[in-house]
Amino acid sequence: MRPVKIEVTESPSLKILWNDETVSEISLIELRKNCPCAVCATEEEGFSHSYKVYRGDEVEIADISVVGSYAVSIAWKDGHNTGLYEFKYLKDLAEKEK
After folding, report:
1. What domains appear along the chain, each with residue ranges and CATH number?
2. N or C terminus: fewer CB in 10 A for the chain?
């Protein structure tokens, strides 16, 4: 499974058309909240009893690029760009939002 088309919608969300002709959609807030990078994972552990609020540049995408045949790299407008979102991870996130 790999993306054929990736776009940011007005909702705002990330919409992915996969090569099996299925479509996944993930809100940008959920995408950022679930950033898989080591820094965010460590930060998330520190927020176990509170909630981090994402807004503004933190939930606006500056750039998306495909990494090899397994992931996408997302650069957020606030400068954060270390998370590699594996294709399966994206598909799973979209399923959780349904």
Report:
1. 3-97 (3.30.2020.30)
2. C
